[in-house]
Design goal:
By secondary structure, the chain is α+β, with helices and mostly antiparallel strands. The chain contains five helices and seven strands, in the order βαααβββαβαββ. The protein has a four-stranded antiparallel sheet with strand order 1-2-3-4, with helices on both faces. Strands 5-7-6 form a three-stranded antiparallel sheet.
Amino acid sequence: MITSIKIRKAELNDALNLSVLKKQVFISTYAINGIRKDFSEYINTEFTVNNTENAINDKNNIILIAESNGFMVGCAEISLLSNCPETKDNIPELTILYVFEHFKEKGVGYSLISEVENLVKEKSFPGLWLTVYHLNENAISFYKKQKYKIIGSTFFEMGGNKYDNKIRLNGQKGGCKPL
C-alpha cells in the first residue's frame, strides 16, 4: 500500500537500485514478444551501475527518484542539453520516466512528471520534449492526459533494428501549453 510518494534527486548510492529498476521496467514495457540477443545486449550495456553513476554525476542531467515507504518505485531523467529534432529548439528532454510495474496507476508517474516540469520551469526553459514508443499504449495515454502533443516521429535503434517513436512536446512551441 502506498502511503506517500517522496521525490528526490538521485545520489551515487542509488546507482545499483536505479540500474535494476531500469532493467525491470524496460523488460516489462518493451519485451512484449520475448527476449532476443540484441535486447539482452542493450540492457546489459546500457543499464550498468557505472553508466548510472556517470549519469548521476553529469551536471547536464537531472535524475529524480520516486520512493514509497523507503523503496525505490520510479525514476525520471532529464537531459538539459538537448535539441528537439522536430523543432530544433534547445529545450530539455525527458529521457526516462520509469515506474515499477506494481506501482503503475498509483500516482508515481504523475508525481515524477510534475516535479520534472517544475524543475524545467525553475530553470527558465520554455518546455520539455520526450519520445514514446508507438506501441506503448500506457505511456501514450499518460502523456495525453498531461497535455503532451505529438509533433513528429523519430527512431530508437537497438541492435540494428529501428523502433518507431513519437516525439511529444509540452511547452510554448508547437501550440502546446506553457509549463
